[in-house]
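To whoever picks this up:

The parser on our side crashed when reading a file containing two proteins. I've narrowed it down to the boundary between the first structure block and the second sequence. Both blocks are reproduced below exactly, byte for byte. First block:
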Amino acid sequence: MTDTWWENDNLDQTYTKSLACYTPEEIYDLCERANLQITGYFPGGAMDFVAWEYHEKVALEECMGYRIKVERK
């Protein structure tokens, strides 16, 4: 996913940013290298596109996104 934006007074200059996705293992490794400890995972929900239903509570491995809480070691 990308998002492109510009300032109204400078339409020729655009800025594009992209979404980075990390597995729980990848984010754990990044936090380890930054000397941060993950103290909590907060999984978001998941969409069942076959039944067209959203499930608010799912396992971390099944969620569409998650938040983490970190502390300095």
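<<boundary where parser fails>>
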Amino acid sequence: MMKSRCHVAIVDDDQSVRKALERLLRASGLDAETFGSAHDFLASLPQGTTPPDCVVLDLQMPGTSGLDLQRQMARFGLQLPIVVITGHDEPGMRARCLAAGASAYLRKPLEAETLLAAIEAAIAHAS
């Protein structure tokens, strides 16, 4: 199982989704921090701070989408494991997200075990 000190960032514009995911991750022994937008997440990453071990990233968000955030992180050299979640699956989107560096692509509604396994695999692969 995952080490208990793993820190996971949840980036989703839906507050109820953020709260549910935060509860799930904390109940599973993970540290979780939530962000309502890509901008809020990027602003939380000042130089010299330790980035999260994994990012759970909603694809459909107003302003900067999850795919846009992935591309921005790549431009900044941020190589973080990313688990993309979406309620609006589109043809070809899984391939685009994985090509942009996502470790996993999951459709909502999420199964707790599937999400936790994807986070664990993403962190293990990055280590």
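After patching the parser it read the second block fine. The first strand starts at residue 7 and ends at 11. The radius of gyration is 13 Å.
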